[in-house]
Specification:
This protein has helices at about 1-20, 25-110. By secondary structure, it is mostly helical. The protein has one domain (about 1-85). It is rod-shaped, with a radius of gyration of 40 Å.
Length: about 110
């Protein structure tokens, strides 16, 4: 951006010197150069502010992605734990059923 600004300044100076038919006073040149400098400063400040905003957004996005990753891992762990609990409960239910069947069979044999 700075190189482009410097090129504009060089072009302006060259056009001022080549225009033999146009009388350009030093005061006009200085005023126009001052205007260009103010515009450049405004644009440079705007670009700087936007870069800061983008850096902030990037940082926030990185934090967001980290939180999503942590949540995904936690949910996966919870799902694995629930699967193991379901298996254990299923196993316990089967054992209980077998035990009840054995008890019923035992009592039916006694009768």
């Amino acid at each position: 951006m700075e190189i482009g600004h410097q090129q504009l300044t060089v072009d302006f100076v060259n056009e001022s010197q080549l225009g033999a038919g146009v009388a350009c006073s030093r005061a006009d040149f200085a005023e126009e150069l001052g205007n260009m400098n103010r515009r450049y400063q405004a644009v440079a400040g705007d670009v700087s502010e936007r870069l800061k905003q983008l850096d902030t957004l990037h940082s926030q996005w990185t934090d967001y992605e980290a939180h999503v990753g942590n949540l995904t891992r936690w949910l996966s762990q919870q799902n694995t734990w629930l699967d193991s609990v379901d298996q254990l409960q299923g196993y316990a239910a089967i054992q209980q059923t077998i035990h009840e069947c054995n008890v019923c069979t035992y009592f039916s044999v006694l009768k």
